[in-house]
Design brief:
This protein is mainly β. The chain is 0% helix and 57% strand. It contains no helices and eleven strands. Strands 2, 4, 5, 6, 9, 10 and 11 form a seven-stranded mixed beta sheet that branches. A four-stranded antiparallel beta sheet has the order 1-3-8-7, with no helix packed on it.
């Protein structure tokens, strides 16, 4: 059983910072890309940032220069440092992990989501 446990969401004023964490546990196999997505009610889930197993990163244009994604492979954990937050960053943030399980089958896992609210 694979679990992704997220933490670090909350309420912050515009211009503030938050750091999200997502730890993967269980028989997850070989982790490939890890990332963060976000979703607001009534809209699709959008990519925020991803990081490959080799450390290559990709960001949505709206967060470039403000958000930083990183990972600790020894802990199977991905982080999202969010600085200079804006009200439009308000959303539920979801952790995403892609891996090949112990049988070599490609798997996609999602966290339970953590609410980030930025007040103006």
């Amino acid at each position: 059983q694979v679990q992704l446990v997220e933490s670090g969401g909350g309420l912050v004023q515009a211009g503030g910072s938050l750091r999200l964490s997502c730890a993967a546990s269980g028989s997850i196999g070989s982790i490939n890309t890890m990332g963060w997505y976000r979703q607001v009610p009534g809209k699709q889930r959008d990519l925020v940032a991803t990081i490959s197993s080799g450390g290559s990163t990709n960001y949505a244009d709206s967060v470039k220069g403000r958000f930083t994604i990183s990972r600790d492979n020894a802990k199977n954990t991905v982080y999202l440092q969010m600085n200079n937050l804006k009200p439009e960053d308000t959303a539920v943030y979801y952790c995403n992990v892609n891996s090949h399980d112990l049988r070599g089958i490609f798997r996609i896992y999602w966290g339970q989501g953590t609410q980030v609210t930025v007040s103006s």
